[in-house]
Amino acid sequence: MARAQAHEDVFRAIADPTRRAILDRLRAGPAPAGALASDFKQSRPAISKHLRVLREARLVSEQRAGRERVYTLDPMPLQRVAGWVEGYRSFWQVSLSNLKRYLEGK
Amino acid sequence: MARAQAHEDVFRAIADPTRRAILDRLRAGPAPAGALASDFKQSRPAISKHLRVLREARLVSEQRAGRERVYTLDPMPLQRVAGWVEGYRSFWQVSLSNLKRYLEGK
DNA sequence: CCATTGTGTAACTGATTGGTTACGTATCAC
DNA sequence: GTGATACGTAACCAATCAGTTACACAATGG
What we know:
The structure is a homodimer. Chain A has five helices and three strands; from the N terminus they run ααβααββα.
Protein backbone atom coordinates (compact mmCIF):
# COMPACT_ATOMS: atom_id res chain seq x y z
CA MET A 1 0.00 0.00 0.00
CA ALA A 2 1.21 3.47 0.75
CA ARG A 3 1.54 6.05 3.47
CA ALA A 4 -1.54 7.21 5.29
CA GLN A 5 -2.86 10.73 4.87
CA ALA A 6 0.72 11.77 5.15
CA HIS A 7 -0.07 15.39 4.46
CA GLU A 8 1.13 17.76 7.10
CA ASP A 9 3.93 15.33 8.02
CA VAL A 10 7.04 17.39 8.68
CA PHE A 11 9.39 14.52 7.97
CA ARG A 12 7.87 14.01 4.58
CA ALA A 13 7.87 17.72 3.87
CA ILE A 14 11.59 18.02 4.45
CA ALA A 15 12.44 14.85 2.59
CA ASP A 16 12.59 16.72 -0.68
CA PRO A 17 15.79 18.68 -1.31
CA THR A 18 14.01 21.43 -3.20
CA ARG A 19 11.68 22.02 -0.29
CA ARG A 20 14.61 22.16 2.12
CA ALA A 21 16.24 24.68 -0.19
CA ILE A 22 13.08 26.78 -0.16
CA LEU A 23 13.10 26.78 3.63
CA ASP A 24 16.78 27.68 3.63
CA ARG A 25 16.03 30.47 1.26
CA LEU A 26 13.25 31.78 3.52
CA ARG A 27 15.65 32.12 6.42
CA ALA A 28 16.89 35.25 4.67
CA GLY A 29 13.40 36.66 5.08
CA PRO A 30 9.88 36.36 3.64
CA ALA A 31 9.54 36.26 -0.11
CA PRO A 32 6.71 36.20 -2.65
CA ALA A 33 6.12 33.01 -4.60
CA GLY A 34 7.49 34.42 -7.83
CA ALA A 35 10.79 35.43 -6.30
CA LEU A 36 11.18 31.94 -4.86
CA ALA A 37 10.31 30.34 -8.16
CA SER A 38 12.92 32.29 -10.05
CA ASP A 39 15.58 31.07 -7.63
CA PHE A 40 14.99 27.48 -8.60
CA LYS A 41 15.34 26.17 -12.09
CA GLN A 42 12.06 24.29 -11.90
CA SER A 43 8.90 25.76 -13.31
CA ARG A 44 6.78 28.13 -11.27
CA PRO A 45 3.91 25.67 -10.77
CA ALA A 46 6.38 23.12 -9.45
CA ILE A 47 7.50 25.55 -6.78
CA SER A 48 3.90 26.46 -6.11
CA LYS A 49 3.20 22.84 -5.34
CA HIS A 50 6.20 22.58 -3.06
CA LEU A 51 4.95 25.66 -1.26
CA ARG A 52 1.61 23.99 -0.82
CA VAL A 53 3.24 21.00 0.83
CA LEU A 54 5.25 23.26 3.10
CA ARG A 55 2.09 25.18 3.90
CA GLU A 56 0.23 22.00 4.79
CA ALA A 57 3.09 21.01 7.05
CA ARG A 58 2.81 24.51 8.53
CA LEU A 59 6.44 25.18 7.81
CA VAL A 60 5.55 28.35 5.98
CA SER A 61 2.68 30.77 6.22
CA GLU A 62 1.22 32.84 3.44
CA GLN A 63 0.22 36.50 3.56
CA ARG A 64 -1.57 38.00 0.62
CA ALA A 65 -0.34 41.40 -0.37
CA GLY A 66 -2.05 42.73 -3.43
CA ARG A 67 -1.54 40.17 -6.13
CA GLU A 68 1.51 38.75 -4.41
CA ARG A 69 1.54 35.98 -1.86
CA VAL A 70 4.36 36.41 0.53
CA TYR A 71 5.69 33.31 2.21
CA THR A 72 7.20 33.42 5.66
CA LEU A 73 9.22 30.72 7.36
CA ASP A 74 7.60 29.08 10.36
CA PRO A 75 10.16 26.72 11.82
CA MET A 76 8.12 25.52 14.77
CA PRO A 77 7.24 22.12 13.29
CA LEU A 78 10.94 21.43 12.91
CA GLN A 79 11.05 21.05 16.64
CA ARG A 80 9.49 17.65 16.19
CA VAL A 81 12.39 16.67 13.95
CA ALA A 82 14.91 18.15 16.32
CA GLY A 83 13.32 16.30 19.20
CA TRP A 84 13.38 13.00 17.40
CA VAL A 85 16.98 13.32 16.27
CA GLU A 86 17.97 14.47 19.72
CA GLY A 87 17.22 10.98 20.98
CA TYR A 88 20.15 9.74 18.91
CA ARG A 89 22.76 12.26 19.88
CA SER A 90 24.15 10.17 22.72
CA PHE A 91 24.38 7.23 20.35
CA TRP A 92 26.47 8.94 17.77
CA GLN A 93 28.80 10.14 20.47
CA VAL A 94 29.28 6.50 21.38
CA SER A 95 29.81 5.71 17.71
CA LEU A 96 32.52 8.31 17.52
CA SER A 97 34.36 7.09 20.56
CA ASN A 98 34.13 3.53 19.27
CA LEU A 99 35.66 4.67 16.01
CA LYS A 100 38.38 6.49 17.88
CA ARG A 101 39.23 3.42 19.91
CA TYR A 102 39.27 1.38 16.75
CA LEU A 103 41.57 3.80 14.95
CA GLU A 104 43.86 3.81 17.92
CA GLY A 105 44.20 0.11 17.30
CA LYS A 106 42.83 -0.76 20.69
CA MET B 1 10.19 14.27 -13.11
CA ALA B 2 11.37 12.70 -9.92
CA ARG B 3 14.17 12.73 -7.41
CA ALA B 4 17.65 11.89 -8.55
CA GLN B 5 19.38 8.73 -7.43
CA ALA B 6 18.04 9.60 -4.03
CA HIS B 7 19.28 6.38 -2.50
CA GLU B 8 21.44 6.86 0.52
CA ASP B 9 19.65 10.11 1.29
CA VAL B 10 19.15 10.28 5.04
CA PHE B 11 16.23 12.67 4.83
CA ARG B 12 14.39 10.32 2.55
CA ALA B 13 15.25 7.35 4.70
CA ILE B 14 13.72 8.88 7.80
CA ALA B 15 10.67 10.21 5.98
CA ASP B 16 8.85 6.93 6.48
CA PRO B 17 7.34 6.39 9.93
CA THR B 18 7.95 2.65 9.86
CA ARG B 19 11.63 3.21 9.21
CA ARG B 20 11.83 5.70 12.04
CA ALA B 21 10.16 3.13 14.26
CA ILE B 22 12.74 0.55 13.25
CA LEU B 23 15.52 2.93 14.18
CA ASP B 24 13.80 3.69 17.48
CA ARG B 25 13.52 0.00 18.08
CA LEU B 26 17.24 -0.51 17.39
CA ARG B 27 18.17 1.96 20.09
CA ALA B 28 17.35 -0.83 22.53
CA GLY B 29 20.15 -2.83 20.93
CA PRO B 30 20.94 -4.82 17.79
CA ALA B 31 18.31 -7.23 16.55
CA PRO B 32 17.98 -9.83 13.79
CA ALA B 33 15.67 -9.08 10.89
CA GLY B 34 13.05 -11.56 11.98
CA ALA B 35 12.72 -10.08 15.44
CA LEU B 36 12.26 -6.65 13.91
CA ALA B 37 9.71 -7.93 11.44
CA SER B 38 7.57 -9.48 14.12
CA ASP B 39 7.41 -6.16 15.93
CA PHE B 40 5.68 -4.51 13.00
CA LYS B 41 2.43 -5.68 11.58
CA GLN B 42 3.70 -5.50 8.03
CA SER B 43 5.00 -8.56 6.26
CA ARG B 44 8.57 -9.68 6.69
CA PRO B 45 9.63 -8.75 3.15
CA ALA B 46 8.26 -5.24 3.69
CA ILE B 47 10.51 -4.82 6.72
CA SER B 48 13.37 -6.35 4.78
CA LYS B 49 12.97 -3.63 2.18
CA HIS B 50 12.87 -0.93 4.81
CA LEU B 51 16.06 -2.38 6.24
CA ARG B 52 17.63 -2.19 2.82
CA VAL B 53 16.80 1.50 2.58
CA LEU B 54 18.21 2.10 6.04
CA ARG B 55 21.30 0.12 5.09
CA GLU B 56 21.80 2.17 1.94
CA ALA B 57 21.49 5.31 3.99
CA ARG B 58 24.05 3.74 6.33
CA LEU B 59 21.74 4.18 9.27
CA VAL B 60 22.07 0.53 10.13
CA SER B 61 24.76 -2.04 9.58
CA GLU B 62 24.30 -5.74 9.11
CA GLN B 63 26.31 -8.53 10.70
CA ARG B 64 25.71 -12.06 9.58
CA ALA B 65 25.56 -14.57 12.38
CA GLY B 66 24.75 -18.02 11.18
CA ARG B 67 21.49 -17.76 9.34
CA GLU B 68 20.55 -14.58 11.09
CA ARG B 69 21.37 -11.08 9.99
CA VAL B 70 21.73 -8.83 12.95
CA TYR B 71 21.07 -5.17 12.41
CA THR B 72 22.81 -2.52 14.44
CA LEU B 73 21.94 1.13 14.66
CA ASP B 74 24.44 3.53 13.17
CA PRO B 75 23.21 7.02 13.97
CA MET B 76 26.08 8.93 12.42
CA PRO B 77 24.22 10.01 9.28
CA LEU B 78 21.61 11.61 11.51
CA GLN B 79 24.17 14.25 12.27
CA ARG B 80 23.43 15.71 8.87
CA VAL B 81 19.79 16.06 9.85
CA ALA B 82 20.69 17.47 13.23
CA GLY B 83 23.01 19.93 11.59
CA TRP B 84 20.41 21.09 9.13
CA VAL B 85 17.70 21.52 11.73
CA GLU B 86 20.13 23.26 14.02
CA GLY B 87 20.19 26.14 11.58
CA TYR B 88 16.55 26.80 12.46
CA ARG B 89 16.76 26.64 16.21
CA SER B 90 17.34 30.35 16.61
CA PHE B 91 14.34 31.00 14.37
CA TRP B 92 11.91 29.01 16.39
CA GLN B 93 13.08 30.73 19.51
CA VAL B 94 12.15 33.97 17.80
CA SER B 95 8.82 32.43 16.83
CA LEU B 96 8.16 31.53 20.43
CA SER B 97 8.98 34.95 21.78
CA ASN B 98 6.81 36.52 19.08
CA LEU B 99 3.97 34.29 20.15
CA LYS B 100 4.57 35.21 23.77
CA ARG B 101 4.51 38.90 22.98
CA TYR B 102 1.35 38.39 20.98
CA LEU B 103 -0.35 36.47 23.78
CA GLU B 104 0.61 39.16 26.22
CA GLY B 105 -1.39 41.47 23.99
CA LYS B 106 1.60 43.65 23.27
C1' DC C 1 -12.36 48.69 -19.89
C1' DC C 2 -8.07 46.29 -21.20
C1' DA C 3 -3.57 44.36 -21.05
C1' DT C 4 -0.30 42.67 -17.89
C1' DT C 5 1.41 40.62 -13.87
C1' DG C 6 1.45 37.25 -10.02
C1' DT C 7 -0.29 33.46 -8.64
C1' DG C 8 -2.90 28.89 -7.68
C1' DT C 9 -4.92 24.81 -9.86
C1' DA C 10 -6.41 21.19 -13.20
C1' DA C 11 -5.10 17.60 -16.12
C1' DC C 12 -1.75 14.67 -17.48
C1' DT C 13 2.64 11.88 -17.24
C1' DG C 14 6.57 8.93 -15.99
C1' DA C 15 9.07 7.46 -11.96
C1' DT C 16 9.19 5.93 -7.36
C1' DT C 17 7.11 4.15 -3.22
C1' DG C 18 5.54 0.79 -0.16
C1' DG C 19 3.19 -3.11 0.05
C1' DT C 20 2.12 -8.01 -1.30
C1' DT C 21 2.94 -13.11 -2.62
C1' DA C 22 6.09 -16.46 -4.57
C1' DC C 23 10.58 -18.06 -4.82
C1' DG C 24 15.68 -18.96 -4.03
C1' DT C 25 19.28 -19.91 -0.85
C1' DA C 26 22.18 -20.57 3.15
C1' DT C 27 22.40 -22.53 7.75
C1' DC C 28 20.91 -25.42 11.53
C1' DA C 29 19.11 -29.70 13.83
C1' DC C 30 18.62 -34.18 13.22
C1' DG D 1 20.83 -35.90 3.34
C1' DT D 2 16.32 -33.84 4.78
C1' DG D 3 13.33 -30.72 6.66
C1' DA D 4 12.74 -26.54 9.00
C1' DT D 5 14.29 -21.80 9.73
C1' DA D 6 15.88 -17.04 8.59
C1' DC D 7 16.57 -14.50 5.47
C1' DG D 8 16.93 -11.51 0.81
C1' DT D 9 14.95 -10.70 -3.73
C1' DA D 10 12.00 -10.87 -7.95
C1' DA D 11 7.76 -9.80 -9.91
C1' DC D 12 3.83 -7.44 -9.61
C1' DC D 13 0.47 -3.69 -8.17
C1' DA D 14 -1.98 0.48 -6.57
C1' DA D 15 -1.07 4.87 -4.80
C1' DT D 16 1.67 8.86 -4.57
C1' DC D 17 5.22 12.12 -6.25
C1' DA D 18 7.31 15.66 -8.70
C1' DG D 19 7.26 17.57 -12.73
C1' DT D 20 5.10 19.65 -16.97
C1' DT D 21 1.80 22.62 -19.93
C1' DA D 22 -2.63 24.90 -20.24
C1' DC D 23 -5.93 27.50 -17.92
C1' DA D 24 -8.51 30.57 -14.50
C1' DC D 25 -8.62 34.55 -11.87
C1' DA D 26 -7.72 38.59 -9.00
C1' DA D 27 -5.11 42.96 -8.62
C1' DT D 28 -2.50 46.87 -11.09
C1' DG D 29 -1.55 50.25 -14.40
C1' DG D 30 -2.75 52.58 -18.16
